[in-house]
């Protein structure tokens, strides 16, 4: 079977692509299909977030294993039919690090495979892809977040007096060690 998936770029404008892919291919194949459909260059890190019906992230699947023990699931481990169990299933896709591209993908329909087609394939394009990842600008009427003075709160709980009033316990007097030890050895070597 072939899954027809609509991938929508998270942007102000309507920009989306419809990609067809076999149900027995993996999220890694879909990752390649999205990169091709949206002309994303490079080999940046990416992640799929499999979502529940209410939009809560159920599972995150990275391109490469980032777990401490090295046995975490990666994109090539998850088949499409596992990530999209039914028509209407959704996942979030994030691509990039310094410049983060965010996409939402939804399974539109399941259809029969066409002979002699190399899947994944982009079957429909809508909207022009921007040169840079869309920024997540705040709406004009939303208040600017207040940055708390974390260190100020910390200092309130403790006496942060000057160091001048503390007793100097460092002993500057000679402890009987010969500071010129290394200098004398080096003179003898000459």
Strand content: 25-35%
Main pleated-sheet profile: 7 strands, antiparallel
Query: From the helix content, strand content and strand pairing, which structural class follows?
Result: alpha+beta
Helix content: 10-25%
Q: Which spans have pLDDT < 50 for at least 5 consecutive residues? A: 138-151
Q: Number of DSSP strands?
A: 7
Report the C-alpha radius of gyration, rounded: 29 Å
Mean pLDDT: 79
Query: Order of strands side by side in the largest beta sheet?
Result: 4-3-5-6-1-2-7
| N/C terminus separation | 86 Å
- Number of helical stretches of at least 4 residues: 4
Written as H for each helix and E for each strand, in order along the chain, the element string is EEHEEHEEEHH
* Shape summary: globular
Note down, in words, how this protein is organized.
17% of the residues are buried. The protein contains four helices and seven strands, in the order E-E-H-E-E-H-E-E-E-H-H. The protein is 16% helix and 26% strand. The longest helix is centred in the N-terminal third of the chain and has 11 residues. A hairpin with a 5-residue loop joins strand 3 and strand 4.
Name the features.
alpha+beta; 7 strands; globular
Topology:
Elements: E1 2-9, E2 16-22, H1 27-37, E3 46-51, E4 57-62, H2 80-83, E5 90-95, E6 101-111, E7 121-126, H3 150-156, H4 181-189
Antiparallel strand pairs: 1-2, 1-6, 2-7, 3-4, 3-5, 5-6
Give me a quick take on this structure.
The chain is 16% helix and 26% strand. It is α+β, with helices and mostly antiparallel strands. Strands 4-3-5-6-1-2-7 form a 7-stranded antiparallel β-sheet, with helices on one face.
């Amino acid at each position: 079977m072939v899954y027809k998936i609509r991938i929508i770029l998270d942007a102000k404008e309507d920009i989306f692509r419809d990609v067809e892919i076999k149900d027995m291919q993996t999220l890694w194949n879909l990752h390649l299909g999205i990169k091709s459909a949206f002309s994303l260059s490079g080999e940046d890190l990416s992640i799929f977030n499999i979502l529940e019906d209410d939009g809560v992230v159920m599972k995150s699947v990275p391109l490469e294993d980032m777990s401490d023990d090295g046995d975490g699931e990666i994109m090539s481990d998850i088949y499409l039919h596992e990530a999209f169990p039914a028509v209407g299933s959704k996942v979030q896709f994030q691509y990039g690090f310094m410049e983060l591209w965010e996409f939402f993908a939804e399974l539109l329909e399941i259809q029969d495979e066409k002979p002699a087609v190399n899947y994944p394939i982009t079957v429909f394009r809508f909207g022009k892809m921007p040169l840079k990842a869309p920024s997540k600008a705040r709406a004009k009427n939303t208040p600017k977040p207040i940055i708390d003075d974390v260190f100020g709160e910390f200092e309130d709980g403790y006496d942060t007096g000057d160091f001048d009033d503390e007793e100097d316990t460092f002993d500057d007097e000679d402890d009987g060690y010969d500071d010129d030890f290394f200098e004398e050895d080096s003179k003898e070597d000459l």
